[in-house]
Specification:
The chain is globular and about 40 Å long. It has strands at residues 3-7, 10-12, 18-25, 34-39, 45-51, 58-60, 68-73, 78-83, 92-98, 103-104, 108-112. The protein is mainly beta. Strands 2, 4, 5, 6, 9, 10 and 11 form a seven-stranded mixed sheet that branches. It is built from no helices and eleven strands.
């Protein structure tokens, strides 16, 4: 079955960096676009970044543009989210999502605090 497993979250100080990973299994990863979403406490889930199958088409939310970078390694069935210049407003649970499969990972907590 489709499985998405995120890792790499944690506690970081403002201005710091984290790299999230999402390892996929149960489907042909290279054939599917992938996304990262996040959900802050009391808020809805919002799209952070999206990447096409081969990585040639990428888009970001305005709130993370210039600070976050999405990438993928199809040989490893993994999608990444490099997060730099983190701010307290980036605190959320981050989810990996395969839109065409409507499948979500379990999420990984990112907390930005001094």
């Amino acid at each position: 079955q489709v499985r998405l497993v995120e890792s790499g979250g944690g506690l970081v100080q403002p201005g710091g960096s984290l790299r999230l990973s999402c390892e996929a299994s149960g489907f042909t990863f290279s054939a599917y676009a992938m996304s990262w979403y996040r959900q802050a406490p009391g808020m809805g889930r919002e799209l952070v970044a999206h990447i096409s199958t081969a990585g040639y088409s990428i888009r970001y939310s305005d709130s993370v543009k210039g600070r976050f970078t999405i990438s993928r390694d199809n040989a490893k069935s993994t999608v990444y989210l490099q997060m730099n210049s983190l701010q307290p407003g980036d605190t959320a649970v981050y989810y990996c999502y395969a839109p065409a499969l409507t499948s979500w990972g379990q999420g990984t907590q990112v907390t930005v605090s001094s």
